[in-house]
Amino acid sequence: MIDRMMHLAARVRPEARRPAQPPSVGHGRGGIWTFNTGMISNFYPAGSAVPGIQTEIPLNPGASGGPMFDRHGRVVGVVTAGIADAQAINFALRVDTVPKALSSVRAHCDCLVVRAPKGARIFVDGTWVGTGPEAVRIVEPGDHEVSAMVGGKRDKKKVRFPAVRRVTLSP
User: Cα(162)–Cα(133) distance, rounded to whole angstroms?
Assistant: First the structure.
């Protein structure tokens, strides 16, 4: 079941942003299923030490790994942690960061993996997606441009996804 949930999450477009009252589904405190709603209180952008979502959804231990949805039923995050001695301060990985943060998810997603020298800024279709040595991006099938600043020069390649799933940029 978890593999199917992660596959669903990885297929969601990363543009999904701020739901008004996102629900989350999990197995809090060992229950068969729990369903809770709450508010998003903060977004931590890509490039942050921990890019993700801070939420006030009341979650219990055991809810980690459960999806967080927007009002259209699209997965926007995966619940990861909470502050034990606080009331409803919890965190989720943004769906577009899950494949990089959880390497076991990569086999279940439509992801483009871009490798570049350590510290090189990596771009996919003109959007910064991370720094080397590796960035992972959920993309739609079709043509994409990947690039990185390597040794003061821009290395750029055109790729057709999903025929090409891994790209290496070098000086």
Answer: 21
* Maximum CA extent, the chain: 54
Contact 53, 38 (CB under 8 A): no
Tokens 């057709």 — which residue? 160
Say what the pLDDT of residue 16 is. 43
Q: What percentage of the chain carries pLDDT values higher than 70?
A: 76
Q: How far is it, in rounded angstroms, from Cα 95 to Cα 79?
A: 10
Task: Record the tokens describing residue 26, joined without a space.
Answer: 């999990």
24: closest CA among 35, 32, 16, 33?
Answer: 35
Burial of 63 (0-12, 13-18, 19+ CB in 10 A): buried
Count of CB atoms situated within 10 Å of the CB of 51: 17
* pLDDT tens readout for residues 24-73: 776 666 667 777 778 777 777 666 666 688 888 887 777 777 888 777 77
In eight-state DSSP terms, residue 9 is H
Q: Encode pLDDT of 137-167 as tens digits.
A: 888 889 999 999 877 888 999 999 999 999 9
What is the spatial distance between Cα 45 and Cα 58, in angstroms, rounded to a whole number?
23
